[in-house]
Design brief:
The protein is of the alpha/beta class. It has a domain of 96 residues. It contains nine helices and seven strands; from the N terminus they run ααβααβααββαααβββ. A seven-stranded mixed beta sheet has the order 1-2-3-4-5-6-7. A hairpin with a 3-residue loop joins strand 5 and strand 6. The radius of gyration is 21 Å and the shape is elongated. 25% of the residues are buried.
Length: 215
């Protein structure tokens, strides 16, 4: 005698709510199993699996997969193979993806065209962007309202990948939020800065290392 799961006994609209809640901000690391990766990298089995609920049965897979595409964040950590990894994502799935996360120093912006429904891109610059304020001023003062533009310009000026991504997203008919994170070296500090590229607005900054110098 076959039994129906409690989930499938719920009305379709209730299941939709459950799927949306379960997969909100769920990270999915995109990888190609044909490429060799080091131990602990995103190509390890634990990082390759889709959420377990999708494997429960055929019906939940068909119902939940589009929700996963819309709610989850696709994470591309292997920036040298971003174009290839983007092609690994099935077209039907990619067409629904709204959120992706990129990191690296070489990211071809044209590959973003595979994701027509994009609403949010998070980009992490791996290299250091050097910005040197006057010795008597710490980074916190430098991020005052009068100098935020200088900090952002410093990042944009040293990240060709970020500029390429920005240009590619600007050509889209729909607005896409682009959030970037970079490390800035000042005279006194090494700081992680997160900012909205389109709005040219610093969202947060965190001091990673503080240097004390003797006079």
């Amino acid at each position: 005698m076959e039994t129906t799961s409690m989930l499938l006994q719920c009305p379709p609209e209730v299941r939709e709510i459950i799927y949306n809640y379960a997969f909100e901000d769920h990270p999915i690391h995109v990888c190609d199993v044909r490429l060799k990766r080091s131990i602990g990298g995103p190509n390890r089995p634990a990082n390759r699996r889709l959420p377990g609920l999708l494997h429960a049965n055929k019906q939940t897979y068909q119902e939940a997969l589009p929700v996963v595409a819309r709610q989850a964040t696709l994470v591309f950590s292997d920036y040298l193979n971003f174009a290839q990894l983007a092609s690994v994502v099935p077209k039907s799935f990619a067409s629904l993806v709204r959120n992706i996360s990129l990191q690296g120093d070489v990211v071809p912006g044209h590959s973003l065209g595979r994701f027509p429904s994009l609403e949010h891109v998070n980009y992490k610059q791996l290299g250091n962007c050097f910005f040197v304020p006057a010795k008597e001023k710490g980074f916190a003062k430098r991020v005052s309202a009068a100098s935020k533009q200088e900090v952002i310009d410093s990042v944009l000026g040293r990240s060709s990948s970020l500029v390429l991504i920005q240009d590619a997203l600007r050509k889209r008919p729909n607005h896409v939020t682009l959030i970037a994170r970079a490390t800035i070296m000042s005279y006194h500090e090494q700081t992680s800065v997160t900012f909205d590229v389109n709005q040219l607005r610093i969202l947060s900054h965190e001091v990673l290392v503080h240097y004390d110098y003797d006079d």
